[in-house]
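[Automated response] Your request has been received and processed.

Submitted sequence:
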Amino acid sequence: METLRIALLGAGTVGSGFVKLLDELRPRFRTLGLEPALSGILVRDPARPRPPWVPRGLLSNDAEQVLRGADVVVELMGGTGRAAGLVESALDQGTPVITANKALLAERWPELKPHALEGLLFYEASVMAGTPVVEPLSGSLRGNRTLELHGILNGSTNYIIGRMEDGLGFSEALEEAQKKGFVEEDPFLDIGGVDAAHKLTILARLTIDPDFEWREVRENTSGIQNLSREQIYAAEEQGKKIRLVASLYPAGGRWRAAVRPVLLPADHPLAQAALSRNALLYRGDAVGEVFISGGGAGSAVTASAVIGDLLRMLEGYPGHPPLPQAVPAPNYQPEPLEEVPV
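Generated structure:
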């Protein structure tokens, strides 16, 4: 068996889930003639309590020590600060990187894009956690001209809205989601729509423009932090449901990206995505409508996509490439979604 040295950056909710799943799936790696081994785990505070399956002897706040001799870097720290420098350094040295860091991908794309084109960057887990959308959009769906896409890309907000439909107030639902580990360390990233906006930016670069700017999405983003139960109930009386939807569609001869709460008919596919589930509704000129739904939040769900990318890399496949060049907005009129004033 050849040893596969994995440098893990971050041992939070997803990082600890990755450690556990990696151990459970060790036999699968052995079929490839490889024995996975963590070379180190980078954390801010090695003394902080962690799940028992996270090996304390590998915890370190010394990035150089953790990265030394690694065959692949798995970045699950999040954010655009320290993580950015470490990821860029590894990629510059030709080391493949697997990441779930949507903020990094959205906001630091000019530095990362050349490495993505080389096939060194794997990021299925960055959008919809363990539910595959990056692979289909960068693969088989490239045979289509994209007409529009709409998604529930943040399982946390979907969980909160679902619990409000059950009768909880916003604060109660948020607290419950936090206890379940569904909400980011900074809750505004979820409830303010920023997390969904990061993910929509990634999808835009896979489908319509490899250089689609984060700023264009951020400027058209609003969240659910001011959503009330009264609005939830009013929607139900109309036979509708409120969902935080991220959309990419043609408008006025150009592409428009937006994240905002919208009113959907109760039987709309996106309205059926309950609690922490995510969903994507894609329309292409050839394939028509494609609907993908699955788990979109939580430790094991996200870690499964990280492991999937690791196996993809070991089987010889390159990372996920952006669209080769921008495509113009089609002469297509999508059915507008009714936005909720919040």
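Summary generated for your ticket: The chain has a mean pLDDT of 95. The chain is about 35% helix and 25% strand.
If you did not submit this request, please reply to this message.
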